[in-house]
Amino acid sequence: MHTGSCNCRGVAFEIDGDLAPPSVCHCGQCRKQSGHCWSSTGIDKTQLRFTSEGTLRWYNASETARRGFCGTCGAFLFWAHNGEDQISVAMGAIDAPTGVRLARHIFVADKGDYYDISDGLPERAQ
After folding, report:
1. Among the listed residues 21, 20, 18, 40, the one whose alpha carbon sits nearest the alpha carbon of residue 29
2. Which PROSITE patterns does this chain map to (predicted)?
3. Domains, the chain, ranges and CATH?
């Protein structure tokens, strides 16, 4: 069992089960919404249970996906592809210990020009 929340705790949740090794996304949308790059773990939606969701808001980021965030503190918490059983959960919102380590970088072709990726993890251009 893992727990997590946004900064103001208006959105709080529990994850039943182990976390998959997280990815770091460098796409333009994640950078714009998070202020840098965004790290998340993918879980089955049935593993996620909200203990508080009064401030949870969803933004339709495209025709195929939406992003969940706190309407009070602005924390970017979730990414979900429409019609799929998986949901991505922000690693920064999950309470320690998580028991996982970063596994890969994705959308590195879109990364910001102000930083380098030098940790030696696998990188996917898109």
Report:
1. 40
2. CENP_V_GFA
3. 2-110 (2.170.150.70)
**Residues 110, 44: contact at Cβ < 8 Å?**
no
Backbone angles phi, psi at 111, to 5 degrees: -60, 160
Eight-class DSSP state of 126 = -
User: Are residues 107 and 122 in contact, defined by beta-carbon separation less than 8 angstroms?
Assistant: no
Give this prediction's pTM.
Answer: 0.95
Task: Give CA–CA dist 10/43, Å, rounded.
Answer: 21
What pLDDT sits at residue 13? 98
- Token digits for 18? 């182990």
pLDDT tens digits, one per residue of 36-89: 999 999 999 999 999 999 999 999 999 999 999 999 999 999 999 999 999 999
Number of helices (H), then strands (E), belonging to the chain: the values are 1, 10
